[in-house]
Amino acid sequence: MLILAIALSVQAGGISFDSEIPKDVLLEKIKDAGNFGEPGSVAALFAVAATWITYFGAVYLNFCDFSRYAKDENAVCTGNLWGLPVNLILFTLVAGITTTAAFKVYGEVLLHPDQISAKFESWFLALLAALTFAVATLGINVVANFLSPAFDFANVFPRTIDLKKGGYIAALIALVLYPFASWEGGAAQFVNFIGSTMGPIFGVMMADYYLIRKGHLHVEALYDENGEFRFSGGWNIRASSQPVLPASSRRSYPSSQQCCRRGGVSMAGSSVL
C-alpha cells in the first residue's frame, strides 16, 4: 500500500490532502454502503470507529495465542502500541492518499487496491501487485483466522493433536466450507455477526478484569474445578447474559462491509465535505 501510494502520488504531482473528488461523485460511488452519514461526517467516522473497536474486540479473545510467546508484559504493551493505534493511523493516511491520488491519475474513485492495480499498463506491475495482495491476505488470515482454531483443536485433544495438526484440520475445514460461502455479501454479514457477539463478550471480560478485579487475576483459581470461577454450576449467569442485548440489536448498526467502504474513503471525503 505504501509503495502504491508513493507511485500514485508521483504521477498525481505530489501528495495532497485536499481532495478534488466532487461530492456527488463520491456519494454515488458509495451509495450501496448504507445511510449512516456522508463521508467525512461525524456519523460516518463513528460508524468506522465502532466497527474497528468491535472487530478487534473479537480478535482479542484469542490474544493469549500470541501473548504467551512474549518475553514480558512490556513487550506485549509495546507490540500493541505499534501494531494497533500507530499502524491503524498510518494505514488510514496511506489509504486516503492512495484514494485521492488515484482519482487525480485515473479520473475515477477507486476504493480497492486491486481496482487500482487493474489500471496498470505493465503486466509485471499488475502481477507484482496481485502477489503482494495475496501475501497480505495470507498474513492477516494466519493471525486472525488460523492460529485460534489450530490452538482450539490442540487444546481439546492435547494427547493426539498438536498446533501443527490443529492447523491442518482448520485449513481442511476452511477448504471444505469455501465453496458454500457467499463472498459477495455473506462474508460481510458473517463478520458483522461475529463482531456483534464476540465484541460484547470481550467487553465483559475487560470490565471484569479492570473494573472488578483491578487488574489482579488468581491464575491458580482458573485451574481449580471448585474455585471462585466455578460460579453457578460452571456458568457466570450475569456475565453470560450481558452480550445478548448487543447481539440482538446488531441490525441497528452498519455492517462491516458498509463501514469498511466508508473507512476506505473517509479520509478522501473529509476534505471535500
**Structural class estimated from helices and strands:** mainly alpha
**Residue windows where pLDDT falls under 50 for at least 5 positions:** 252-273
The overall pLDDT average reads 77
The number of distinct helices, counting runs of at least 4 residues, comes to: 13
How much of the sequence is in beta strands?
under 5%
Question: How many strands appear in the DSSP assignment?
Answer: 0
Coarse shape: globular
Query: How are helices and strands ordered from N to C?
Result: HHHHHHHHHHHHH
Relative helix content: 55-70%
Describe the structure.
The chain is mainly α. It has one domain. 67% of the residues lie in helices and 0% in strands. The chain is built from 13 helices and no strands. The protein is globular and about 65 Å long. 20% of the residues are buried.
Which features does this protein show?
0% strand; single chain; mainly alpha
How are the SSEs placed, and which strands pair?
Layout: H1 2-12, H2 23-29, H3 42-59, H4 64-67, H5 73-106, H6 113-117, H7 123-156, H8 163-177, H9 186-212, H10 219-222, H11 237-241, H12 244-248, H13 256-270
Helix pairs in contact: 1-5, 3-9, 3-13, 5-13, 7-8
